[in-house]
Amino acid sequence: GVRGPYGVGPLSAPMDIPTHYDPRAPPKNLRVTTGNKPDTMIVSWSSSCPMMDDPINYTITVIDLAKNKPSMVTLPPTNETVIKYTFKSIRFGGQYKIIVATDVDDAKSSEPVIYKAPPIPPPHQLSILPDEQEYIVYWQEGGIPQDLRSHIKYHYEVLVCEDPHVFNESNAKVYRVEQPPFLFKEAKPNVNYLFAVRLVTDDGYKSILSEVSSPARST
Of 15, 35, 43, 49, whose CB is crowded by the most CB atoms within 10 A? Predict the structure, then answer.
């Protein structure tokens, strides 16, 4: 309105100011959640504009951080403002970096999201029994998911650290074992050892470590 010496005048007629949709703009509100099955991953996001007159393609990039291996999926064109896509056969114990962008030249990607797949259950009930100058390492296999047990080959890594107080994974020696028990034959006199075990699939996905144990105590 106009304010003058005789008060406030009438409002001017409203004007529509159109905004230009940028097809290169990054998608918004990227989220990644576990699907109905633990080996599925749902990726969802919103379009950069609250109204989409023209359909557009989106490309989802998934980087497997265990292998530093990217894969991409380009979806059919859509003018929906909320989009979802489900990935199947996600590996237990994996970590994935996900980004989404429109499928046009010089498109800007969404903010990345890191998704941690359901973990591989670790071995447990680790026990170390001395046998003269050797140690016998026993453990119980974790509650391995049936999909992992029936379709994927795996083995174990036994980690041995020469420190009676602190388990330092970076300094530990690693021994590949197909199944328990493991016979540690390299024990030195008057040296205390700490042991831990993890499951590793043959394509590189790992469980978290078991509890750390020594012949004298468990921590």
Answer: 43
